[in-house]
Amino acid sequence: MTRFHGLDLNLLVTLDVLLVERNLTRAADRLNLTQPAISNALTRLREHFDDDLLVRIGRDMERTPFAQQLLKPLQDALQHLRGLALARPRFDPLTASRNYQIVASDFIASVFLGDLILHLEEAAPNVTVELLPLNDDSIGKVSRGEADAIIWPVGKTPIPGYTTRRLFVERFVCIAGCENSSVGATASIEELNALKRVVPPYKTYWASNAIETQPVGPVVALPFTAMPWFVAKSDFVAVIPERLAAMYEHVLPLRRIALTPPLPAVPFCAQSHPDSLSDPFKGWMLDQMELTAQVRCTPESAPRPHRQASAAPA
User: By residue range, what is the domain housing residue 60?
Assistant: First the structure.
């Protein structure tokens, strides 16, 4: 048992999970431990730090002010230690068997990860890529070393100090079903916000600050890849990435609504914790994502729209 100034260092991992989850049952599930074991660990941590760390308020547990101060340096220290533990003198892509975890939306899975995997089949045949869903804890997963990188729009929620690779630029467009008579061929942002709209379930994933406010009309939250199917058979509209719209326009009765003013193009990037780059494999993977984007995600390679915007049926 490794101790440092009287503390079992393994308890620091437990402390990180406890402070993030603020729930003994969820912490036990994440660490694959029993709840009594987690309770015992919390007791030992409280004794060592001479602080309650977590206090119950109603049905919830909240961090004490001291625990809140501990969280960021604790996570930084653990990430640094993970980087040291994963450090390797070299990486041979043709022989190494590794798994790389990327936090991203279903849109990224549809338009980018498939191309990355096809590229890796030749460049690194024993390397696999795992997609982790985008959610409120996405940054936490990367900072804790539970994911290797996150792919999302540049500038929406940047992670200060993280390694960033720009991948591609995407336009966002508004779609409606061909039989939707609630909207014509054009709409202002104000008119868009008043329509029945489908939105993504990602709080930090918007095409523009102009539509970040809560819509006035009814809202349904769906993953990007489910939006076109719902829009095609309803009187809802949606703002989705143009590449995705072009894919579904070939198979669904959809039309585009020209927004005035049009939404700006959105750069997408991959971000990873700088400590993870002590592992040559992870630096190499960032290079491969950037290379794949340059080769396969250029404007010339984007699918062309199948159906042009038209006025709603009379």
Answer: 3-86
Asked if residue 75 belongs to a domain, the reply is yes
> Dihedrals φ, ψ of 302, to 5°?
-70, 145
Nearest Cα residue to 219 out of 245, 244, 241, 237: 237
Backbone angles phi, psi at 240, to 5 degrees: -135, 165
Dihedral sign (CA 288, 294, 295, 297): positive
Q: Which of 66, 86, 106 is the last residue of a domain?
A: 86
Quote the pTM value.
0.69
Tell me what the mean pLDDT of segment 256-272 comes to: 89
Q: What is the pLDDT of residues 71-122, one digit of tens each?
A: 888 887 887 777 666 666 677 899 989 999 999 999 999 999 999 999 999 9
Instruction: Identify any residues that bridge with 226 across adjacent strands, giving them in sequence order.
Output: none
Flag whether 306 is in a domain: no
Those residues whose C-beta lies under 8 Å from the C-beta of residue 93, and which sit 6 or more positions away, are 123, 124, 127, 284
CATH number of 204's domain: 3.40.190.10
Cα(225)–Cα(202) distance, integer angstroms: 13
Check whether residue 36 and residue 160 sit in a common domain: no
Q: What is the rounded distance in angstroms from the CA atom of residue 278 to the CA atom of residue 57?
A: 41
| Cross-sheet strand order for the sheet of 237-241 | 186-188, 254-260, 172-177, 237-241, 197-199, 219-221
* Alpha carbon distance 310, 314 (integer Å): 12
Contacts of 189 (CB under 8 A, 6+ apart): 210, 211, 259, 260, 261
Percent of the chain with pLDDT over 70: 83
Same domain for 239 and 190: yes
DSSP 305: P
